[in-house]
Amino acid sequence: MKVHIERCPFCAHAEFIQARQYAPEAYVSGEAIFGQQLNHTICRNCGSVVRSYVENPENLLKKKNRRAKD
User: What confidence tens digit (pLDDT) does each residue in 32-48 have?
Assistant: First the structure.
């Protein structure tokens, strides 16, 4: 899903950079993200991360499925 952000919700600046972060084991809301790359949209003016996402959300396993897989 492509999301277009026009203005930073914190400072209203309109210029962003894209950054990638490899997360061999990260946690989001108590759910583990194993081997997923996190993508961030960052405001060039204030440095706020205005969006973070993984490119393949279908690869995220539900907690019950992760336990069954182990």
Answer: 666 678 899 999 999 99
Summarize pLDDT for 6-34 with one digit per residue, the tens.
999 999 999 999 999 876 666 666 666 66
Q: Which amino acid is at 49?
A: V
User: Is residue 36 in some structural domain?
Assistant: yes
Q: What angle do CA 36, 41, 46 make, to 5 degrees?
A: 135
Q: What is the span of the domain harbouring residue 63?
A: 16-69
Report field, pTM of the whole predicted structure over 0.85: no
How many CA atoms within 13 Å lie on the side-chain side of 43?
16
Residue 10, in any domain of the structure: no
